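Reviewers of the previous submission asked for a worked example of the structure-prediction workflow described in the proposal, so we include one complete record here. The input consisted solely of the amino acid sequence. No template or homolog information was supplied to the procedure at any stage.
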Amino acid sequence: MSANDQFVSVLHQWIDLLMHRSMRRFIHYARESGLSLSMIGTLFHLNRMGSSGVTDLGDHLGVTSAATSQMLERLVQQKLIQRSEDPTDRRVKQIALTDKGCQVLEEGLRSRQTWLHNLADILSEKEKEQITAATNIMIEKAKQLG
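From that input alone, the workflow returned the following structure tokens.
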């Protein structure tokens, strides 16, 4: 196996482990909070975009406007989002996160990252320095790719 093949293989293993552990904890948090993956996806989308219309959210999630509206109603009832009229077109509703919605996202992200803190606890200082240096190199090189 070439050095390139070995490097890519190790990165694949790391990414698989990273995604599995991160997503497993995040999905567990979402279930405990009574949120579906579509609901979580909506919260993330609103966090990134600031606000969005119902049609845009449905397009983003790949579901009908009716299904989107039902899901949004559940999020409104949980006080995670708020609906308001679009100032330029009163027929259009704008959807945005509430403070509680932002808090739920932050808690979910912390839950997802807990295992990284546990990993850091079992690494030696030298290992942390080596991993930090190598990761910084990969970050810089990845940025060069665009």
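The mean pLDDT is 90. We consider this example representative of the routine output the project will generate in years two and three.
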